[in-house]
Structures are given as C-alpha cells and as structure tokens.
Batch of 2 targets.
Target 1
Amino acid sequence: MKFADLHLHTHFSDGTFSPEELVGHARRLGFAALALTDHDSVEGCAPTAAACAAAGIEFIPGTELTAEHHDIEVHLLGYFLDIHNETLLAEIAKFQAVRQNRIREMVAKLNQLHVPLEVDAVFALANCKSPGRPHVARALTKAGLVKHLDEAFERFLRKGRPAWVPKAKMSALEGIELIHRAGGLAVMAHPGLNRTDEIIPALVEAGLDGIECFHTKHTTAMSEHYLEIADQSNLLVTGGSDCHGFSKGKPLIGTIKLPYEQVEKLKAGVESRRARAGSPRSASRQPQ
Ligand code: AMP
Ligand code: FE
Ligand code: FE
Ligand code: ZN
C-alpha cells in the first residue's frame, strides 16, 4: 500500500533535518509522497523537491501558517502552493520579519533576567528566515544556560513565562485566501491540539478545504471526531507526523502513514478549486 506524510519540517524553519536527511528517512520508511510544511516559509520546498525527485518520491509544496481567528490560534497548512506567487512570498516575508523581531524581544527579556544569551547566537543557530522559540531554546542549551530544551520552555519560553513574547499572527480568513491565491488548498492543522472546534464553521465558510485528522499527538478518539467533522462539512482529510527531527532517539517521520488515496482526493480537490477560481477570472479577461 502507498502512503504519505503531509506535515513535515526542515531546518528552513524549526526542524533539525536538512531536506536531504528528511527525504532519506522517508525513502527508508517507504513513503510514496511527502509535503513540506515549514512554519511561515516555503524556502525549503525547492531543495526538498529536488531530493524527492532523486528518491522517486512525489513532492507537494506546502507551508504551515501561524494564524488566528477571534483570538484562537490556528495553524493553516497550505498544499500544492505556487511557491513563486508574489503575494504569498510578500505575506510570508512580513511574518518572517515578525518572527525575527520577536527573537530580539525574547533575547532582550532573557538579558533583563540576567541570562546572557546573545541574539546573534540565536540567528546563527537558526540560520533561516523563519526562526522561532525552538531556536532560542537550542541556543540556550548550546550556551549551557539551561540543561535541556524542556527547561528552556518551562522556565522562560512557554506562554506566560518571563521571556515569552506574543506573536502577531495572520488572520485565518486572510490566510485561507492567501493559500487559495497561490493556487493551493487550505487545511486546518492538528485541531486536537489547538482546540479550534468552535471556529471550524467560520473557516469552512471562508473556504477551508480540509482538516488534519491524523497527527502524532491526536488520540484515536480525536482522529475519529475530526473524521466525522470532515464528513459532515465535506472537508478533505489529511495527516502527518509533524516531524521536527529526532524524538526520543528516533526520527518522528513514520508515526503517521496517510493512505495515498487521500493524496489523490487532495489532487482532485486542488484541480477543481483551480478550475472554479480560473473561470470567473478568465471571463473577466475577455479582449476589450
Ligand atoms: P513559535 O512559532 O516561535 O511560537 O514556536 C512554536 C514551536 O515551538 C512549535 O512549532 C514547536 O515546534 C515548539 N514548541 C512549542 N512548545 C514547546 C515545548 N514545550 N517544548 C518544545 N518545543 C515546543
Ligand atoms: Fe514547529
Ligand atoms: Fe503546528
Ligand atoms: Zn508543524
């Protein structure tokens, strides 16, 4: 049977694998298709596409946008994106700048707490346009200022802890529109983690295409619950490991094996969305 993992991170955001390492694990595990969904970035898509092509794995260009609706945080997965779409790249660049400024603010707070972390050490370690709290945690660990990543989050970086800084987020409705403008499908990520049930109807109304029913941190009951919602709201079903690298000594990729049949449904879905989006636009482009 063919299977896919549609939620993966590389070192182009807060994952630790390079595209080549990630694809190496995917090949060893027998995956037929992968989607790369780095946070607020599409930078890793081209190298991951190349590594997938060399490994005979189908590649779906994607991203994971940090968004919100009525103060509820929601992560939006975009799939089959045109990674050269100018509007998409401009919006992503804005939120990458937000991320970089937030790193500076978090480090300033740490310094006020007499934790002598240097901001350049974080940027050097992150070495990407879309840095996040995990990079601060890793830099703290590397500098010997905490013992491990958990301590960094527990003492400083978790929401409400003294070095935590809120992050300006994209509106979820705008995020969905942005993904559609870039020719993609918009999918709600790990709804079981963000407790986003109450905003599903509004997002469906705005054109949400799918929901991530299968995720490493979803219980069987959660997956069943979201499969039911997908069925009721006519949403596509996705799933992925949300691999950021090694977890307890093993690469997290491989924990979710989405049947390839769902990828075929996604492909049919994106074709029909593009056909629907294309028709009024081509009608308005009649010669004058
Ligand atoms: P950010 O987007 O900068 O707010 O960072 C969020 C990312 O941090 C998530 O995608 C996770 O990868 C990671 N993360 C969040 N909480 C924790 C935690 N308690 N321990 C380790 N990693 C975490
Ligand atoms: Fe992450
Ligand atoms: Fe997420
Ligand atoms: Zn993720």
Target 2
Amino acid sequence: MDLTNDKKDVVILGIESSCDDTSAAVIRNGVLLSNVTASQAVHENFGGVVPELASRAHEQNIVPVVDQALKQAGVDKSDLSAIAFTRGPGLMGSLLVGVSFAKGMARALGIPMVDVNHLQGHVLAHFIDEKDVERAKPSFPFLCLLVSGGNSQIVLVKAYNDMQVIGQTIDDAAGEAIDKCSKVMGLGYPGGPIIDRLARQGNPKAFTFSRPNIPGYDYSFSGLKTSFLYFLRDQLKEDPQFIEHHKEDLAASLEYAVVDILMKKLRLAVKDLGIRQVAVAGGVSANTGLRNAFYDYAKRYHWEVFIPKFGFTTDNAAMIAITGYYKYLDGDFCSIDKPAFSRVAL
Ligand code: KG4
C-alpha cells in the first residue's frame, strides 16, 4: 500500500460506531463537508443501550450512512486520502462494526487507515472547521473537561496528538449518574436532555445532595447518586406523589450538584497549572447548567472558555474525521491487525 500522499487535498472519511450512534463524516483539509448520524431509537424502551441491539442497528445503518456522507460531501471514494475510525473505547460489538467496515473499505481502496481514540475525538471537536463559520479555537496548552456518559476527565491538551489525563472519575461518569437518577425518577432515556429541560423550571437550591471528598483532580459521582436515591426513597414514604410534585426542583438540584462538583475540580486544576484556556467536550457539555457555569467562571476568574457547537457535543463522526486528519498529517497510520478496544484511558 502506498502511504505517501501525492494528492493535493487531504480528504478523510471518519466513521464512528462506539455506542448507539452510527455516524460518518467527510473532512477536506480540516473543513467539514458532511456529518451524517443515524441514532438508534430502539433502546428507548429499555431505559439504556442494549449492546446486542446496538450492534445489529450499526450493521443496518453503516452502509447507507457512509454512502450519504460521501454524497452530501460531493466526494467520490476515489478522492479519499484515508479512512479514520473509532477503535475504542466503547461497546465491543458496536465498535467491531465500524472498525471492520473501515478496515475493509480502506483495504479495498488501497488507502491508509487511521485509528482514533473516541475520547481524543471529543477533545478535538473544538478544531472542526466549517465553511463560512468563524469559531474561536483554544491554543495549546489548554485544559479540557471531558464529560460524557462513560467518562468524566480533566485533560491537559498539549498538542493535537499529545494529551494527558490529570483527573478522572473513580466510579460513575457524570452523564451516567444523571441518566441513572433520571431513570429512578421514571423519566425517559437518555435522562441528560430531560433533566436539562426540567431543570430550567426548577429551583437548584431546593434540595441538597452529598458532595464527594476525594483528593486531587479526580471525580466521584456514586455518592451523589446514592444520596439522591435514598432521599427519594425517604420522601416517597411520606408522599407517594413526591417525584411528580417536585420533578423540576429535583432535576435542578441534581444538575446543580453535578455542575458544582465538575467545576470545583476544574477550577483547582486551572489554579494549580496556571492555564486559563478551558474547554469542555462530550455529551454532557450540551447541558445548559454546565454551559452557563463555564460562562460564569469565565467572567469571575478570567478564563477564556471554549464550548463546542451543540451538534459536536454528542457522538459524531466529524470529531473522528478531524482527529484522523491530524494523525494523518503526522503520518500516524494504523495497521490492519490492530484490534478494537472497549476500555482504555486517553
Ligand atoms: O458523549 P456522549 O454522546 O456519549 C458517550 O460517549 O458517552 O454522551 C452521552 C451522555 C449521556 O449520559 C447523556 O444523558 C448526556 O451525555 N447528555 C446530557 C445532555 N445531553 C446529553 N447530559 C446533560 N444535559 C444534556 N443536555
């Protein structure tokens, strides 16, 4: 295979299939041309992602999603410089669909394949350029709060391909805790956007839930989750309609606690490292309370904050394609024998 780039343009097809979104995107010279995502409604009835159903849905979606991404971009597969794909972390069955597809397609076209760490993709979502859109980008080094359904980390980002996790959750992720509390309240799945919507009408100081007390920049959300559960259990004994009567205040107080925990550790890291460029990434960065807290801290503590475009916060292939683009420029390719991985830090 010829790994040298004799084409003028660098055109990357990105493929993401780590959880329950099948997504494909095309990026030319760092500029997004298309970003197509098929989400899987099948999990809603189960209150969480069912891995086997996710894999089957990826199987059904991957060909039409890739086809549409190429068509929307106006790019022929012969124009592609490389194919980037999420190699992990994620659900193994889901990952295997995207990984196998990407490897097969790259091999058939005789072009390089670039493996992408999903978490690095979330961070580099800040560098996706769109035609005719001006967006400020962080400069290196910066700190990134990476908060999703599976991760809560503070990342020191030194360069596109050089990142260090300086703090992370020792148990539940922030999104996972919100989703679980929402499930206990009998709300739909995923809970994050529902809690966000309800919280807008509630009082964040109505109820207080426990905060973790752990050293350094690490997080913990299991104590908060348990305190939420016990509180509900006790209140429901007195008033079986407690959740119905107080769902806005419960959502607002839960969100307030999660945001407070996230921001306090982030502030500690900013102070210690003396880095004032602070970004947020991952699905939970769509949260209104967290976004407002970023703007508030920016004013109060003179941070320069970077919040990704809404559509780039949850899982998408544009972030995989942009990461693939920077790895491609570094000549950092993947061999066909590199397997998918379900768990690993950044
Ligand atoms: O990054 P992501 O799409 O997938 C993972 O890689 O985990 O994040 C999904 C998480 C879920 O826990 C979901 O409830 C949460 O992001 N989420 C939100 C909001 N939108 C999505 N959490 C709070 N507020 C939101 N608006």
